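Researcher: Following up on the earlier apo prediction. This time include the ligand. It's MTE, with the SMILES given after the sequence.
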Amino acid sequence: MDSDSSPARRRFDPPLPAPPAALRRGPLRPGAFRSPAHEPRTAVVLGRWLGAALLLCFATGLVSHLLQDPPGWLVPRLPSRPVDGYRVTQGLHVVAGLAAIPLAGAKLWTVYPRLFAWPPARSVLHLLERLSIALLVAAVLLELFTGLLNTLQWYPWPFPFRQTHYWTAWTAVGALLVHLAVKAPVIAAHWRRARSAPLPGRRAVLAATAAAVGTVTLTTAGQSVPWLRALDLFAPRRPGTGSLPVNRTAAQAGTTAVPADWRLAVDGPAGYRIGLADLRALPQTTADLPIACVEGWSANARWTGVRVADLLRRAGIPAGSAVRITSLEAEGPYRVTEMPAAYADDPLTLLALALDGRPLTPDHGFPARIVAPNRPGVLQTKWVARIEVA
Ligand SMILES: Nc1nc2c(c(=O)[nH]1)N[C@H]1C(S)=C(S)[C@@H](COP(=O)(O)O)O[C@H]1N2
Ligand SMILES: [Mo]
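Model: Understood. Below is the ligand-bound prediction.
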């Protein structure tokens, strides 16, 4: 079957002048790429899947970014419900990001013959379009690569992960919109399947891609989707097998030896310091709340402790106050966190003293840690030393 004979292809991919005779070899020889894998229809079908995955990543990534680093106007508007909100959005973020890796590979395979189109640039506009595609490919690959290494908790680069991942995402989305606009006629022409039967080669490419995506998803999604746990072969962390995974251990944070006279400081108009025995004597609340790590794993656990709101009222801090929480940890990016009022006032936000009915272990934040609904794991401060008005 000669793919070049399809009317749609002739219309949107007009035959171009051949390269000079001396160059007409290898990928530049006429008819070098005849597989239906390289047809526009294949690119459009894969592009739809990849586009959906990338847009889902972008939307859920924005949620994660805004929860971790909200602009001032958003702080009083961040909701502490639904309890599992961040668990779901961040789980989707990582599932979609991992699925996008084989999709991006397949999409690049489909279109790479365009690299050898002749002439390399037909006009200034065409050159700009090709450069925008180079930017799109670079941004998407950087995004998927940094995201993948992040799920492995591996940061081998000197630049800050979150800012890089964030700005590269905007670059990728901008370049994607340009790409969609430029390719709109091709996309429209190949959006629906041609009336003739699909070419067997194209079917095989799509089936292989779907199988790769399915395998990647099923063998990693168990890190955040409980009913897929049994298939979770490749995710780096496996919640549910025993206790909660630990990202930063007490040894790494230098908080293994908590001073015997540890007392939580609550600063406010009627500020006070309170030791562990007295904290345990206060009214206790037990709640099932998830730890949802930005790196993609999440797990529910049963936490018991004192409501943060109760601690604040005792210090004379009124409802509606945002607070700052400081850890015993000497240094580390999550030593100090800010908690907007909606979380501080939520009756499920705890200064937890126990996990699954047992006193906290050093790795989970002994003597006391924060656990709040709908918050990224990085903000669930362990080894708490001080609570004060932000
Ligand atoms: N003080 C402090 N608290 C911290 C961290 C930290 O590095 N320092 N890591 C956070 C991260 S990234 C996560 S995912 C959760 C994990 O909680 P766990 O170790 O009890 O599962 O703790 C959070 N609390
Ligand atoms: Mo985390």
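Model: The radius of gyration is 27 Å.
Researcher: Noted. I'll compare it with the apo version next.
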